[in-house]
Amino acid sequence: MAPQKNLSLSSAKSDVENLKTRNIDLAGLLPPLGQNDAPVDDDSLVRSRDFAQSARIALQTASSGDIDDTGARVESIRDSLDAVIQDLDSKRS
Length: 93
Prior knowledge:
Structural class: mainly alpha
Number of strands: 0
Shape: elongated
Helix content: 55-70%
Distance between the termini: 22 Å
Mean pLDDT: 80
Oligomer: single chain
Radius of gyration: 20 Å
């Protein structure tokens, strides 16, 4: 299995800032309520709610100004863990 790439916090922050800067209303991209006559898929609804909740949390985090501090801490921890992994790998050899 290929190693998983982590989502860059700076990229996420940039995406959120682009949405805010361009005044993009994501709700405006959806059809009005009642326009879609397709049956509702409960699993799809749950995933949509989860996505909306995650988006709200991301926007709140970006708006709070703490994202840079949090990102720096995450990168520091990531670097520390990478060093530990390299050390363990060198001891195995």
